[in-house]
UniProtKB/TrEMBL annotation:
Record's keyword terms, sorted: Lyase
Protein name (Swiss-Prot/TrEMBL): glutathione-specific gamma-glutamylcyclotransferase
Gene that this polypeptide is encoded by: ggg1
Species lineage: Eukaryota, Fungi, Dikarya, Ascomycota, Taphrinomycotina
A Pfam family hit: ChaC
GO aspect biological process, one term: glutathione catabolic process
Species: Schizosaccharomyces osmophilus
Electron transport recorded as keyword: no
A molecular-function term among this protein's GO annotations: glutathione specific gamma-glutamylcyclotransferase activity
């Protein structure tokens, strides 16, 4: 039986733009589920979705035990977790693509090793080791706990070298809807609705 992780290869878990803009040279992808985290648009973007003067907001992952310290308007149920897509990078390209990912996620993110699951109720992970980039609360880019009103105002108007901030949000919401019937995200879908309402008024 072929192993999912041949020697020298690695897996990267995408929970944001990597889902719809995957890394180059991957040879296999799997929709999967990360336990113990919630997804939040709590990282400043001073390049791709905003500027230094007017930063946008992009995603990070918050560990449950840390998230509980914040006054979070979305009140995500614990069983939602975080759905995303894992991409396998073959051994011949591992060094090259790891360098590409380190550069892509340079703005406030650090690399972590996590297990991921095929279904919410599974006891055994489908992948024991998966690379994921997380913007921790120690990062200077971390900006937590804005209200839905404040965050939707900001995302509706900010723009960076990769385009408007709201396009990032809409691409994310559309991608999440197609990952799995189990995939839900209160934070993202509430924010998507609020931003669409803002744009209609601009």
């Amino acid at each position: 039986m072929e192993t999912l992780s041949p020697e020298g290869s690695f897996w990267i878990f995408g929970y944001g733009s990597l889902i719809w803009h995957p890394p180059p040279k991957y040879d296999l992808s799997i929709p999967c589920y990360l336990r113990g985290y919630v997804r939040r648009l709590w990282m400043k973007s001073e390049d791709h979705r905003g500027t230094v003067e007017k930063p946008g907001r992009v995603l990070t992952l918050i560990p449950y035990e840390e998230w509980e310290k914040f006054s979070d308007w979305a009140q995500t149920p614990y069983d939602e977790g975080c759905w995303g897509m894992a991409f396998r990078i073959p051994a011949p390209f591992a060094k090259e693509i790891r360098a590409y990912l380190d550069d892509r996620e340079v703005n406030g993110y650090t690399a972590h090793d996590v297990p991921v699951y095929a279904h919410i109720g599974d006891k055994k992970p489908i992948l024991e080791h998966c690379l994921v980039y997380v913007g921790t609360s120690n990062s200077p880019q971390f900006q937590p706990s804005e209200t839905i009103e404040e965050l939707s105002d900001l995302i509706s108007t900010r723009k960076g070298k990769s385009g408007p901030n709201y396009i990032y949000l809409f691409e994310l919401a559309n991608a999440l809807r197609h990952l799995s019937p189990e995939s839900k995200d209160t934070h993202v879908y509430k924010l998507e609705a609020a931003v669409k309402n803002k744009l209609q008024m601009l």
